[in-house]
Amino acid sequence: MRASQYLLATVKETPSDAETVSHQLMVRAGLIRKLATGLYTWLPMGLRVLRKVTDVIRDEMDKSGALEVSMPVVQPAELWLETGRWQAMGPELLRFTDRHERDFCLGPTHEEVITDLVRNEISSYRQLPINLYQIQTKFRDERRPRFGVMRAREFTMKDAYSFHMDQASLDETYQLMHRTYSAIFTRLGLDFRPVAADTGAIGGNASHEFHVLAESGEDEIVFSSGSDYAANMEMASGILPELAQDAQKRSRSEANTGDAHSIADLCETLGVEAQRCIKTLIVHGCDAQGDQSDELVALLLRGDQSLNEVKAQKLERVFSPLVLASDELIEAKLACKPGCLGPLTADQKAGKISYVYADKSVEALTNFVCGANKEATHWLDANWGEELRYDEVVDIRKVQEGDLSPDGQGTLAIKRGVEVGHIFQLGDKYSAALKASALDENGKSVVMTMGCYGIGVTRVVAACIEQNHDDHGIIWPENIAPFRLVIVQVDAHKSELVRDISEALYAKANTLGIEVLLDDRDKKTSPGVKFAESELIGIPHRLVISPRSLADGVIEYKRRGGADKELLATEAADALLEELAAASF
Ligand code: ATP
Ligand code: MG
Hints:
The protein has 585 residues and is α+β, with helices and mostly antiparallel strands. It is built from 17 helices and 30 strands. The strands form eight sheets. Strands 3, 7, 8, 9, 10, 11, 12, 20 and 23 form a nine-stranded mixed β-sheet that branches. Strands 27-26-28-29-30 form a five-stranded mixed β-sheet, with helices on both faces. A four-stranded mixed β-sheet has the order 14-15-16-19. A hairpin with a 2-residue loop joins strand 1 and strand 2. The longest helix has 21 residues. The structure holds adenosine-5'-triphosphate (ATP) and magnesium ion. The site of adenosine-5'-triphosphate has 15 residues, from strand 8, strand 20, strand 23 and helix 13.
């Protein structure tokens, strides 16, 4: 490709709406342009990268035995009504009507459509297991589209759905997809971690997210220094290093704490450490049907710890999603402000709090400080026993850096990650709702069991840039770079030799099948600009053909992100091309 005939849409200024490095560089290097919030056009340079990412994903999916399909982006409401998601999805689902007043949506995901296909096409265990995938546009009307294509409204996803007669078969495909994803992200040159994830509202059996480690990541992931334990923050549990306790229990006394309501205020007022205090949170409970009730549930945590809401809302007596009781409700029921709440005595609890969950962190405390459930009053030297009790010990704590790994090996570290992939055992949520069943060996009808496996294809491009850049621009891993080689002409208008040699190298590279960009722009584009742009775009290999170096019989070579320039004799430049052509990845 000749730069003079290409759309090099580089931009000098950093776009004002771009918060992350990848968003800035994608616009500046001319990979994408914004059409409207969360909607992006992929320019020729960007599309070359996206295609390569797609090729790697398709190649590994095909190798795993998955079969490619392509389903419509526009989906009829009927299917979503059948699974109940027409109501449940909320405003993220973009809905519209056609000329016949029929309801449709833009697919944010394709469980409904694929399950409809499979219930019609598959009837026997002989046809199973099957894993169907596509690489397709998705639309989600995200609450906060941001970071460019990282959290867009329209984006490309690779989504796969597997169907099985039983759990054992699903487990097998799930493991295969785990390995396939690891192979994909390894080939894409990403520093990634698979982490255990919450199965959330769907409540399947297992789920793993694949995270690319990056400071700008929206998620927190937790892993152990001493084992392969890794989980996302929502799921992670850790063991608190043991805290020395007083051997003797003292008897409880009351202290006037004025308007000290936060743990920090309390510590200052009483001169105690946060880890000696108990923090009490009051949330709404739920009834037997799981609906929100006005019953209040208390959650107790050690003062230096914070609540993991996802864990808390999974507790049987707690309404999900978690709703903190309002100050008014707490005052009306408990006659005290939230800042003075604590574990209750049986008298205090009666009829007011339906259940008390204590996080493991408070179980071993002795002589602790907690609210006395009375205005401006806290207890000192409180202890668990006849009077002060909880109903159940649970894990509702957010893990902290330095906690011990739950498997006892190593300590936990917390890093930020960008979720690029997600694999999930769905069970029969969709197959039961849509009645997708097949006959087993005995002719009995069995509801199929499903798995689903997603990769954010467009997000992968942004995540890759987050990990591979410097002050000058992008540093592409070789196998997804838009071009592998750029040949920069310097002062070609003054030197026939520059033109001849660069054209000869360009022709040779093309013949060898190396994706090459010849920067043959005329003198209006200065050499400095050409160099800066090749670095911004991040092309891995650069040859500079200038009258000055040719006079010395050499060509300048530079590896993007690598060591200093090298001077190559002309034959060595030929050899370099042969080497590039022979490289495999
Ligand atoms: P997130 O928590 O980031 O919103 P999700 O749980 O909604 O992700 P899935 O439904 O599992 O995501 O989708 C599969 C993959 O699609 C994700 O792992 C992610 O890489 C990608 N993805 C999801 N939402 C977006 C988006 N708005 N823009 C770009 N990629 C996305
Ligand atoms: Mg989402």
